[in-house]
Structures are given as C-alpha cells and as structure tokens.
Amino acid sequence: MQEVTATSRHYVDRLFDPDPQKVLQGVIDMKNAVIGNNKQKANLIVLGAVPRLLYLLQQSSSGLDLRTECAVVLGSLAMGTENNIKSLVDCHIIPALLQGLLSPELIFIEACLRCLRTVFISPVTPVQLLYTVSILFFLFSVFTSDHQTVLFNHSAVQHIAPLLISPSYKVRMQALKCFSVLAYENTQVSMTLVNVLVDGEPLSQVFVRMMQRDQPVEMQLTAAKCLTFMCRAGAIQTEESCIVLKTLPCLVRMCSKDHLLEERVDGAETLAYLIEPDVELQRIASTTDHLVAMLADYFKYPSSVSAITDIKRLDHDLKHAHELRQAAFKLYASLGSNDEDIRKKITDTENMMDRIVSGLSESSIKVRLAAVRCLHSLSRSVQQLRTSFHDHAVWKPLMKLLQNAPDDVLIMASSTLCNLLLEFSPSKEPILESGVIELLCSLTQSDSPALRINGIWALMNMAFQADQKVKVEIVGCLGTEQLFRLLSDPDNSVLMKTLGLLRNLLSTRPHIDQIMSSHGKQIMQAVTLILEAEQSIEVKEQTLCILANIADGNTAKDLIMTNDDMLQKIKYYMSHSSVKLQLAATFCISNLIWNEEDGSQERQDKLRELGFVDVLHKLSQASDPNLSDRAKTAMQQYLA
Amino acid sequence: HSAGLHYPGASVPAYSTFCCLSGDEQDLNERLKRLYPAVNEEETPLPRSWSPKDKYSYIGLSQNNLRVHYKGHGKNHKDAASVRATHPIPAACGIYYFEVKIVSKGRDGYMGIGLSAQGVNMNRLPGWDKHSYGYHGDDGHSFCSSGTGHPYGPTFTTGDVIGCCVNLINNTCFYTKNGISLGVAFTDLPPNLYPTVGLQTPGEIVDANFGQQPFVFDIEDYMSEWRAKIHGMIARFPIGDRLGEWQAVLQNMVSSYLVHHGYCATATSFARATQTMIQEDQTSIKNRQRIQKLVLAGRVGEAIEATQQLYPGLLERNPNLLFVLKCRQFVEMVNGTDSEVRCLAIRSPKSQDSYPGSPNLSPRHGASNPHLHTGGTESPTCSNGVTPLKSKNRSSIKYPSASSSASSSTSSSPSSINYSESNSSDSTKSQPRSANSTQETRWETLEKKPNIYIYILYIDSEMEIEAEHYSNGVVDGSSARIMNGTYKHEEILQPDDNSVDEECSNGRQLCGGNQAATERMIQFGRELQALNEQLCREYGKNAAHKKMLQDAFSLLAYSDPWNCPVGQQLDPTQRESLCSALNSAILESQNLPKHPPLMLALGQATACVQLMARVRSGSCSFARVDNFLH
Lengths: 640, 630
Prior knowledge:
Strand order of the largest sheet of chain B: 1-4-13-6-7-8-9
Largest interface: A-B, 15 and 16 residues
Structural class of chain A: mainly alpha
ARM repeats (chain A): 48-84, 478-520
Low-confidence stretches of chain B: 1-20, 347-448, 459-506
GO biological process, one term (chain A): proteasome-mediated ubiquitin-dependent protein catabolic process
Low-confidence stretches of chain A: 127-135, 138-144
Mean pLDDT of chain B: 75
Strand order of the largest sheet of chain A: 1-2
Number of helices of chain A: 42
Shape of chain A: elongated
Largest sheet of chain B: 7 strands, antiparallel
Helix content of chain B: 40-55%
Main location (chain A): cytoplasm
Strand content of chain A: under 5%
Distance between the termini of chain B: 65 Å
Organism (chain A): Gouania willdenowi (Blunt-snouted clingfish)
Number of helices of chain B: 26
Helix content of chain A: over 70%
Subcellular location (chain A): Cytoplasm; Nucleus
Radius of gyration of chain A: 36 Å
Radius of gyration of chain B: 35 Å
Structural class of chain B: alpha+beta
Oligomer: heterodimer
Number of strands of chain A: 2
Largest sheet of chain A: 2 strands, antiparallel
Number of strands of chain B: 14
C-alpha cells in the first residue's frame, strides 16, 4: 500500500513539472497506469490529481495534445467507482468539460463528450445538475414536455444558442437538434427562442441560414423543423417570409426523389404538421414543386426494379415503405383539409383513391390511421362524396376498419363515416344496408367523448329523411335508456347531436305518431327535464323544435294537449327574451291549432282558454318579421 | 374597339422606378456580375430589357423598355402579340432567372410568360410554336411548343410576380409565383432562347425585372445548391483506379512546380516526404534560383553574367532573350538598381557633396522599393568571393572596350562598398572625381536636365534611327522639345533647386543621382543600340525590339522617369515576366519542361471552362477554376 501511494505521488508530482513536454508525458503515463486499476484511480483522486488535470484541461496554453489527454484521463477516472464520480463532480468537472465542447478541435471535443457521457450515465450524478447543463441532450434522445420545462428553467436556451455558430459541424448539428426537441409543442420555449440573439443575429435568421440549399440536408431539415415547431407554437406568424419562402419550400424539397427515404418521410411529416391549421399554407404547398404529384411517388416502394437487381436495396425499401406511405397520407390529409380545389387535385392524382382504399386495410396500424385521416380530410368535400368516394366504394374498407380498431383509428373512421352518411352521399344507402347501426350505437357508449359524438352524429345523419324502418331500428337498437343517458351527457356537443337525432327521428307525421306511441312517455319526460334545466339557448331551441315536431303528429299532439304543465312551458317560452325560443315555441302552438286536422277545434278552444290567443296577438306585433309572420299565420287558424 | 389602346397604364405604379438611372444602372451591372460571373458580356451580352425591334406591333414598350402593354384589338387569339428580350440567355449563366410582375391583367388576363428562339412568330403567345415555351395566366397551363397546354401551376393575375428560371446545366425550366417554385415546366430546352412575354387582351400590362430589382424568389440560394452539386461532382470525379498512379501524378505536379521555380529546399523535403525523385540536380536548381533572384532584384547585369557563366552559349543561342535582358538592364540602370550603376551611386561623391546627410543612398531608397532592398541586403556581389570572378568575366567578355575606371574599381574592391556605405566617405569621394575629371564638368551642367541625355544618346547613334524616332511616339515629342523647345526651354533651364527639391521628396534620382553611373548608363545605351543594329543586320528588323528600345530610352526624356507615361517600365513587377522567360530558357536548354505541368494543367482547365461556355455547357458557371484556387 505504501509503495502504491508513492508511485501515485510521483504521477501527481509530474503534473506540476515546469516543462510542458514532461507534463504531457506524465499525463500519458498516468493514463496507462489507471486503466482498469480502481485502486490507482482512488489514490490519484485522494492525492489531488483532479483539480490539476482540470486546470491543465482549461488552459488554452496547454496545447491540444495535453488537453485531450487530460480529458481522457478524467474519463478514465470516471469509469471507476461511484465515489470517483462524486469526487469528479465535486471538483466541477462538468462546466469545465462543457466549456471544452466550444473548442474548434474535434478530437478534444470528442474526449470531453466521452467523459461527460460516463459521468452522466452514473446514477450518482445529481439529476438537478444534469439539467443545469444544457448540452447533454446529445446524450439523451427522448424528451418529455417535463424535460423541456426543466431544461428551459435551467436556461438551456442561453447555453445552447452560442453552439449554433460553433466551427464544428457536429456541434452545430447537435445544438440544432436540441432546439428542435425543446421547441416541439412548447409555446413557452418557442416564445423565448424568437427573441434570442446569436452573435447579434435573431435565432430564426440563424435557422434560415442553416436551411440554405448548399448546407447538408440533415441540417436543412432540422432547421426547418425548429422553425416549424416555433410557428406551430405561435411564436412565428404563418405569413412571415421565413415560413412561407424558406421553411415551407425547404420541406417540400425534402419530399423530392433526390433525397434519402428517411429524409423524405421526415420532410413530409414535418410539412404536414406545419400546414395543418393554415389554409393559406396549404394552398401554397399544393402549388410548390408539384408536391401533390411528387407524393404519389411515395407509394412506389419497393420498386419493381429494386426487387430484381438488389436484395440490399429491396430490404431497405421494404423497411421504409410503410413509413413513406403513412407520411404521404398524412401530408395529403393536411393539404386537403380545407380547400376544395386541392382535394380535387389529390383525388385526380394517379390511383389515389385505390391507394387510400388499400391503405385502409394495410397491416401497419400507422398506415391505416394515416389513410383514414386522409380519407376523412377528403370526405369534407360534397363533390368527392358524390363522385370518387362512391366510385371506389370506400365505405366498404371503412366499415371493415371500424371493427375492433384502436380508438385513434376509430375516431377518424367514424368521423369519416359521419360524412359518408350525409343525405347527398350515394354511399349512404349501401352503408345502411350493411348494418352499421349496432356499431354506431355501441360507439355512443364509449368513454371517449370524441367517439360518443361521432357515434351519435352518424346516427343523426343516418336518421335524416330516413325510412321508418331505419328509424325504428335506430330507436330500438339505441334504446331509450341510452338516449336519456346521452341527453344528460357532460359534453354539450353530444347533447346537441342527440337532440338533432330526436328531431330527425320525429319528422313526417306517420313516423312521429309511431315513435311517440311507443316511446312518447319517455320522450316527453326528457323534453320536460331539459326545458326545466339550466341549458344553453341552443339546447332549448333544439328541444322546442322537437316539441314542435311532436305537435305535428296526428295522435302525438295529444301528448302535449293533455300535459298542462308542458303547455304552460310553451307559453312561457313564447314570451322569452330570446327570439329564437319564441319562434320555436310559436311553431309548436301553430302546429297544435292547425285547422285541417282532426280535433283542431277542441285544441283551439282549449288554448284560447289558456290565454294563447292573447300571446299570439302580442307576438303578431313583434319587431322581428319572422316572429310576427309566424304569429299572424297562427292567428288566422282561429279566423278560418 | 380601340379602348384598350388608352388603358390607363400610366396611373399604375411601376414595378421598377427610375429616379436615378445611373445608380440603377450600376446596381444592375453589379447584380448581373454577381449572378453570372462566368458570362463574358463582350461575347454574349445578357438580356437587360425588351427589344423594341423584336416585337409584334400590338406591343407597346415604356419605362426603359421594361414595361410591356397590349395595344391591339384583342378580339381573339389571332390578336396575340409577343416581345423578346434584347439578347438570348448565355449558356455561361449556368442558371438564368428573370421575373415579370403583372401590373394589370387587363380584360381577360391572357398573358404568357416564357422563352422563345430567334425568329419565332411574334403574333402568338409564347409556347404555341416550335422553339417557344410559355406559362399562361388565365388557366395556369404550360405550353411546350404546342397549341394545347398541360395543367402546370396556379393561375396568375394582377399583383402576382411570375419568375422564369432556365437551368442551362440540365436544360430545364421552372417558374415561380410570388417567390414560390412551381416545379419543372419544360425539359430538353434548345440553346439560345430569349426571355419572352406575350399578351392578348386590352389593358394587359406587365413589368420585367432582369436584375434591376432584387428578385422575389431567392435565386442565389438555388444557384448555391447547383454550385455545391457541381463542386461535389468534381470532388468525386472517378480517377484512374490503378493503385498509386494518381497520387504519383499529383506528387510529380507539385514537385516539378517547386523545382521549376527553384524552391530548392521545399522541393527536397517534399521529395523526401513522398519518397520521389527530383528530375534536376540540386546545384542546377540553386543556380536557377540565384539567377531569378538577381533578375527580380533588378540586378540584371549580374544575372546575365551568371547565366553566361553557368550556361555557356545559352544567351548566344537566344539573341532575342539577350536583347530583352539588356533592355531591362538599361531600365534598371535608370532605376539605379542594376549593380553597375548601383555600385557607382553608392560611392557617389557628387550626391554626398551636394546633399550631405540626404537619404539618397540610404535605406529610404530600399524602403520605397522592397525588391531593391532585398537585393541590396542579400547582395552577394559586394561581399562574397564569387562575384569578383564574375565581374572580371564580365569586363572581359561583355564590355571589353567600355570598361570604365569606375566600374573596374568597383569590381576589384567589392568589400569597400559596404564599408563606404556605412561610413562618411572623405577618402573615397575624391577617387572617382579625379578619375573622371575630364568629363566631370560636362555632367555637372547636364545632370539636372535629364532630357538632354536622350539627345546625347541619339546623336551618337545612326541617323536613320533618329529620323524614325522623330516620326512617332512619346519619345518624338520629348526629343522635339530639345530641338526647338521655346517654352520647353524654360523647363530645361529650370532652377536647379526646384528639381532638387522634387527629387529629394521622391527620394529617387536617375541612376541613383550619380554622375558616373549616368555616364555608364549612356554608354550602355549606346552598346544596346549597337546590339540592336547588329541583330537587325543578322535577323532582320524586329518591331518588338525597336519598341522596347524606344520605350527604354524614352525614360530619359522626363525629369522624373518614375512619373512619366513610360514610367511603368520601372515598376519592379515588370521584372517577373522576364524572369520566367529566362528561367524557361534555361530549363529548355537542360531538356526540362519549359513550363511546370501544374501551370499547364491550370491553363488547360481555364481554357476548358471557356470552351464549355462556347459550346453551351451551363455547368461552366459553377466549375470556374478560380473557385479552386486559394
């Protein structure tokens, strides 16, 4: 033991030699001595080698070789016990190594990085410290938004920004990647980034320079991501030239055949994300460099050529084929989400509808989801519903997709189905015949509000002007109990769509009477409940409209006429401050007193007794022309 | 129906405003130079405006021929009208770009923007005919030499800026709309297309931007991508696959270059590092290096001697080179740098007497002329043993009759020069004075009137030459001055003080301000004249020689030769071409290449790039040799 310490002492002493050449040799000898020798490492640390090594590492006068060797020895010491690491961290090794990353010498940077990694991999390194230091993001590729915030709070931005103009490409690239991770869906970080200056230049301009066409593709793409994330976080306006004239064209370029498959996937997905909420960007992207046609190429992998000539390439193509397809579908979905002309352009692209149809039944869940997103985006077009959707019978694979699909696919698919069930859609008939009602009814019982809305929405669309058979089936399948549950759904839009469904069910006289004869009691109860509850004007209006529909039936009328409480409510709403509600209530009364129907005289008499004529008289002088017209028409029923 | 003729185009703000034409013109030139550096506009001018001659009559031009408006009836397609730019797009552009702003879409907006070849019918929109290409605003279709278009891009209308980019590397074209690229429109384009626009209905007005304004689209960014592509192609160009062959070629290139210029030590260590052989032996390299140094230092006389000693017969076989060298020697004498006059000047008692403490001979001379200074400090002539030998050689071979007492004393006692330079020269100053005492008075009177020297020079030469001399050139005038100058007289008789001040302030004097040296120069001039006559007799008249001689002699016609119309000759940089000519001649005599292979390769590459421009290969724009020279 004594002897070991003596040799260790010698190593440390040599670090203080006035001759730099001897110091270098000393460090090299030390490096060789400590490899795999934990005792030696511990000794050297105890004898105070670390501060001296750090000092030498930080002195620019030390020379590149010496500084690099120091970093190597420190890395070696860090490989020892946990106590070693603790000692190193206590000596403030991390800031010294980080400073080293700013050096222009790649070999030195690498030594520092290697040492940093060893230190950070250790469980004893305090997590807090880990965040104080910006750089580590080289070492950790996955981030959560928690990470982002912690990093942000430890002024990561200020630390990383200067690295963007480092002379080393690798360092610049890593710093850029950090920003893309930090800014993703993070408004706070993004808002800060726009105000950061790097060497007097705004960060966004630095990113724009990194997107120049003669820069490496990886750098262009990552810089475009940074700007995309900043834009989506609201830190940069979509109409700014750095987005419209730089980021967007750069991402479109990334989609071209000239680039690697990975880059094309990344480019298309980022572009889809950038343009998703902005119709103007969608329009610009759709005209840039034939993007819509360019994306069609994403479906040609593996190409027939590669299969024959090159096994390696075939393997590569196969691996990326799914990724390429889903990226293309995503981008098509973004492109077509608002503009009718773009949708037409997409469906006019060679075999596009066939590709979507086959995409819906692909084995990869990612592709299925993207395909259905694309289909949903296109299904917002009346024209496409009437033409290409019908021609390609897209409802068939869509129906298949709805069976046992995970929630995210189900949401998209059912939402698409809603559009396919619109009354002008030629697909509505075959879908009805395929027995979708049960599926939709089950969706209304989902825990996901989005699925409940889509389910009830689809049913509502389906019930619009439907056959009595369909209506009966809907009511029978859904069950009144579920109907009431939906009427008290916490989500307001679910309630609205449910009322819409009721309204559609209760149209045309025979249907009204039929449904009211079987479910009249429950429906009247539900209506009462809603009218008595604290609800929005829209909800109450819908409810009064339902009541007006009921009043249009032959036998159903009695359900209202025999319910004095309900009549009082109608009277109340006729004098409500909202014209909408007044109008709906007046409609209801007008239906009840309509002349040509059986028993109209009795009803007129009863309502006169209850004072409705006075109310109508008053309303006939209302300032709203619709309301006064409606009231006057009702009054005429009495005169005839 | 002629309402369209009076469409209020003038009220629309112009795309390009010309408040200050000359400034704009300069901007345009600068921008075009920056965009298309490989274009030689003397061979292939760039388009700068629409051509008033190459247009259909329904087209009106204004705003310096940049604004185009329609002035026809516009009833149907038969009323279409186009205009071409003044020049076709040069291939050397590599990538060419122009923009058109739609000032007004007029009645129907049937506007076409594109390209067409010379001679294509102008009563049409671009794209409808063979060798014509266009992008039309009303339907957004592209027309590729055909009456039917293909869906291409969006429609365009008032306020839009449409750009047209021709890629002369792959012969494609794409358009931009408001700074956004719309993708390739045409491929396989023929060469020599003109920017073209066509209009068809009344009220249509468009403005062109050929570089007058910054472009909306970032064309320079697009160019940078192609520059990087082509540089990458060059960098990755496949070379001979036989192992080490390519490396050997490169090593030989470097080595031969170093040897050629006499970088002996560098060449040796390079050869050692690469384990290659040097073709020439080291002494030979060193000899050449020494001769080159002498020429570059302006000590041409010594260079001639050294050449004759080391390479006997070389100059005899190259009388023209010898003549050029001697002409240069004369110029260097005037400059005061040639060793013959330099040695005299340094010892000059005259100047020391007249201007005691004046820096005439001191480092100031050197300071104003680095070459000279280097030559002076390194001067082997005066300090080592080789020179006296050479000098003897010289006096016996070269100037057997002309060797003056001054020059022989110089060469025989070289070590004293350095000595006297640093010491005050009370003993030495009397020496040349006594030796030249007979001529002393004559020079005393003439020395401040240098234009007299030329007279003297010519009086002694043959009349024929003198007569010729009068009939032409700069020298003519100066000689005339002497012959019949009335007002020139004043110049000649100017008070000495004036010229003294002037010369002092310049720090430069003829032959270093030394009288003996001046005398030697005149003598040398006569010998030179004689040599010329001899060459004329043997080889016939040589116009270049005559001009050279006249230029050299003309220096004497001015009181300040350094600031005169022929003063350029005295610039030390003028020695370089002569130096390399002498070096090449020596190498050739040793059966070594006259020019280093590296320079040949460089010259060949430069010529290739120029050739590429002529055969319309657009990549020449980004493969310029100077991009690779640092």
